[in-house]
Amino acid sequence: MEKLFIPTEEDFRRWIAEALENSLRKLPQILKTPTIEPEKLLNRKEVAGIFQISLVTLHQWMHLGLPFHKQGGRVYFLRSEVMHYLKDKNPKQLQNRIA
After folding, report:
1. Residues 85, 67: contact at Cβ < 8 Å?
2. 48 and 57 Cβ atoms separated by less than 8 Å
3. Residue 77 is inside which H or E element, if any?
4. Which stretches of the chain are DSSP H helices?
5. Element (H, E) at 69
């Protein structure tokens, strides 16, 4: 027959202390791990300012396929999506299609 082990308060204290020590040893490694933050959303004025275009032109670019996102009835853009779109489409081509 196996012996029954009943932990004491001191056993629990030791186990908790060991668990804390192990966690604290891992903390520097966790803090060094770069966190990927979500990309900041840009509003219409910010995007128009970056490309030095009017809001009307930006609206026309949106109709031509410029990716955008709506949140709470407002329009936002991800800088990476806008840059990728404009790399594929020459802005001068966009201006010619609008005119």
Report:
1. yes
2. yes
3. strand 74-78
4. 9-32, 44-51, 55-63, 79-88, 91-98
5. strand 69-71
Q: In whole angstroms, give the CA distance from residue 99 to residue 97.
A: 6
Residue appearing with tokens 């999506």: 81
Predicted confidence (pLDDT) per residue in 9-33, tens digit:
999 999 999 999 999 998 888 778 7
Give the chain's domains with CATH numbers.
41-98 (1.10.10.10)
CB atoms within 10 A of CB 56: 10
**CA angle centred on 90, ends 89 and 92, rounded to 5°:** 130
pLDDT in the model for residue 29: 80
